[in-house]
C-alpha cells in the first residue's frame, strides 16, 4: 500500500501553496469585510492553471483528477477559507457537464471556465427544499422547442456573478418515483426573466458570492438539457456530489491546517508565567489532538479522492470524509482560538475569520446529518 502522492501531485500541491502564500494575504481580509469576490485573484489562478484541473484537456482543463483538485483546494483554504472557496467554486456544476453532458455542451461551456472567461454555479437548493433535494419544485415545462422555467432558488454559490448555471428542475411532474421527476438544465444568466439577488451578512466565506434566484418564464432551448432524456437529474446530482464533497472535505482540512499552524506558532512565541505557553502540557495536548484530527481527516479525503479517480465510487467513504472533515475544521478552529486566548477573538490574527468560515463546512454540499444518514444506509440498508 503506497500512501505517497505522485511527484506530479506534489508539484501541484507545492505550486498551489506558493501561489496562495504569495497572493491571498493581500486581499483576504478586505474580501471578508466588504463581502467581495476576489476577481483579480481568480483570473491569476486561471492563468496559472489551478482552476478546473479535473476537466479533460480537450475542454480546456489539465486532465488531472479530483484528488489533484482537492490538493489545490486544501492549499488555498489553508491561507484563507473565503478566498480559497470562492476561487475553487467558480467551476461548481461543471461536473454535471463533464460527466453527463453532450459533446457540444462540453465544448461550448467548459473551456471558458479554466481560461478565466466564465463563472458558473449550480442551482439546487430552494426555500423549501434543502437536504431533501427530491422536493425541489422549480418547474421546467416543454413548450415548443424550449423549456420555460419558473421557480426560486436560495443559497446559490456564484448566483449573482455566474455566466451560466446548471439548474435542477421538475420536468416529469406526473412521475410517481420522486427520484425520476427532475432534470438538470443549463441556464445562461442573461436570459429574460432571470434575476439574482446577493445574500449579504453571511457568517463566513464572505468572499464567495451567494444569491437568491428567481426564474419567471425563463426560456432555454431543449438542447440545454443535460443528458439524452429527462428524469435523470437526481441520479446525475448524486454523481456530482460524489465529486464535489471531496473538494469540500479538502477545503475544510485546509482551514483546519491553517489555524493549526497559527496555533503552533503562537504557542512558541507567547509567554506567560515566565515561559512559552507551548511548554505547558495543557497546550501541548491541544496541539497534539488538533494535529491528529487533521491528519486523520486528510487521510479519509485522500482515500476517497483516489478511489474516485480510479473509478471506484464509494458514497459511504465520501460521506465519511466530508462529515469528519467539517467537524474537524470546526473543532480544530475552536481549539486554535482557545490557544490564542483573547487575541484569537480579534480580527487581526485571522483566527476569528477562520472560525466563521469553518462552520459552513458542516452544512454545504450536504449537512453532517445527511452524511451520517448516507453512511448508515450504506451500512445497514434502508429499513
Tell me about this structure.
The chain has 383 residues and is α+β, with helices and mostly antiparallel strands. The protein has three domains: 7-114, Orthogonal Bundle (Butyryl-Coa Dehydrogenase, subunit A, domain 1); 120-230, Butyryl-CoA Dehydrogenase, subunit A, domain 2 (Beta Barrel); 235-380, Butyryl-CoA Dehydrogenase, subunit A, domain 3 (Up-down Bundle). It is 50% helix and 15% strand. The strands form three sheets. A four-stranded antiparallel sheet has the order 2-3-7-6, with no helix packed on it. A three-stranded mixed sheet has the order 1-4-5, with helices on one face. It is globular.
CATH homology-level superfamily of the largest domain:
Butyryl-CoA Dehydrogenase, subunit A, domain 3
Radius of gyration over C-alpha positions, nearest whole angstrom: 21 Å
What is the count of β-strands? Answer: 9
* Integer average pLDDT: 97
Number of individual domains = 3
Proportion of residues in helical segments: 40-55%
From the N-terminal CA to the C-terminal CA, the straight-line distance is 36 Å
Number of separate helices = 12
- What letter string, H or E per element, gives the SSE order? HHHHHHHEEEEEEEHEEHHHH
Major beta-sheet overview: 4 strands, antiparallel
Give the helix/strand class: alpha+beta
Multimer state: single chain
Strand order across the largest sheet: 2-3-7-6
Please name the CATH topology of the largest domain. Answer: Butyryl-CoA Dehydrogenase, subunit A, domain 3
Annotated CATH architecture of the largest domain: Up-down Bundle
Morphology call: globular
Task: Give the CATH class of the largest domain.
Answer: Mainly Alpha
Strand fraction band?
Answer: 5-15%
Amino acid at each position: 500500500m503506497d500512501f505517497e502522492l505522485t511527484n506530479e501531485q506534489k508539484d501541484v500541491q507545492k505550486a498551489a501553496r506558493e501561489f496562495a502564500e504569495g497572493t491571498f494575504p493581500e486581499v483576504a481580509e478586505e474580501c471578508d469585510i466588504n463581502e467581495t469576490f476576489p476577481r483579480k485573484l481568480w483570473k491569476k489562478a486561471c492563468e496559472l492553471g489551478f482552476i478546473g484541473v479535473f476537466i479533460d484537456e480537450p475542454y480546456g482543463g489539465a486532465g488531472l483528477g479530483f484528488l489533484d483538485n482537492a490538493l489545490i483546494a486544501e492549499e488555498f483554504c489553508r491561507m484563507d477559507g473565503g478566498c480559497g472557496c470562492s476561487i475553487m467554486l467558480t467551476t461548481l456544476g461543471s461536473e454535471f457537464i463533464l460527466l453527463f453532458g453532450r459533446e457540444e455542451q462540453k465544448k461550448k461551456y467548459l473551456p471558458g471556465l479554466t481560461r478565466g472567461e466564465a463563472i458558473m454555479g449550480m442551482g439546487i437548493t430552494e426555500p423549501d427544499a434543502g437536504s431533501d433535494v427530491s422536493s425541489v419544485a422549480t418547474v421546467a415545462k416543454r413548450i415548443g422547442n424550449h423549456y420555460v422555467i419558473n421557480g426560486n432558488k436560495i443559497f446559490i454559490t456564484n448566483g449573482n456573478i455566474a455566466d451560466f448555471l446548471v439548474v435542477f428542475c421538475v420536468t416529469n411532474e406526473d412521475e410517481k418515483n420522486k427520484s425520476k421527476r427532475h432534470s438538470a438544465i443549463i441556464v445562461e444568466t442573461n436570459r429574460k426573466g432571470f434575476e439574482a439577488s446577493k445574500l449579504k451578512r453571511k457568517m463566513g466565506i464572505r468572499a464567495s458570492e451567494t444569491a437568491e434566484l428567481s426564474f419567471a418564464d425563463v426560456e432555454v432551448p431543449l438542447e440545454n438539457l443535460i443528458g439524452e432524456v429527462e428524469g435523470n437529474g437526481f441520479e446525475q446530482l448524486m454523481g456530482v456530489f460524489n465529486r464535489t464533497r471531496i473538494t469540500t472535505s479538502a477545503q475544510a482540512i485546509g482551514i483546519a491546517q491553517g489555524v493549526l499552524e497559527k496555533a503552533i506558532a503562537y504557542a512558541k512565541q507567547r509567554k506567560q508565567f515566565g515561559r512559552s505557553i507551548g511548554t505547558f502540557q495543557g497546550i501541548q495536548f491541544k496541539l497534539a489532538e488538533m494535529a491528529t484530527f487533521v491528519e486523520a481527516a486528510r487521510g479519509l479525503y485522500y482515500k476517497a479522492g483516489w478511489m474516485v479517480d480510479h473509478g471506484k465510487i464509494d458514497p459511504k467513504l465520501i460521506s465519511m470524509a466530508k462529515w469528519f472533515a467539517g467537524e474537524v475544521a470546526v473543532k480544530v478552529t475552536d481549539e486554535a482560538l482557545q490557544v490564542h486566548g483573547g487575541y484569537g477573538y480579534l480580527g487581526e490574527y485571522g483566527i476569528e475569520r477562520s472560525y466563521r468560515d469553518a462552520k459552513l463546512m458542516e452544512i454545504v454540499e450536504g449537512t453532517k446529518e445527511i452524511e451520517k444518514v448516507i453512511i448508515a444506509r450504506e451500512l445497514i440498508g434502508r429499513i
